[in-house]
Amino acid sequence: MTQADAAPERPGLAVRIAAIVYDAFLIFAIWWAVTAVAVSIQVAQVGQDAIKSSGKAATGGPILFIVLVLSVVLFFGWFWRRSGQTLGMQAWRIKIESIDGSKPSWSQVLIRLIGAELSLTLFGMGYIWIAFDSEKRAWHDIWSKTRLIRVPKKT
Known about the structure:
Elements: H1 13-46, H2 48-54, H3 61-82, H4 87-91, E1 94-98, H5 106-121, H6 125-128, H7 139-144, E2 146-150
Antiparallel strand pairs: 1-2
Helix pairs in contact: 1-3, 3-5
């Protein structure tokens, strides 16, 4: 069996967490910029004096929440559909693909993102599952029919 025939190496939990933390910093920067624009628009519409006199902070409300969620979906969807890697995944040499080796579809992206949130919300059990799965899959990998693989080092 040649190296090309061998099953791709699967990243463990520690590498996944490292990539998640890296991408979380990028998401935070995006959210900060989006929120700054939303609050600026609100202040321009209502006026700073009206906001001060109401005693409430300028917020974007439910529309801002929806825009923030959409920014996450677009961030991951764009990277995963384009190259299979976010910037954090590139740094840690991991890549997402469908189980047939193709790029994930938009439906797989959505299932994976919702599933990842559920995996985390349930006391991280969906991520801990990696330690028990023979293919090192988290729940959201299974549900979305995707997998993470290690990208070989460039020589």
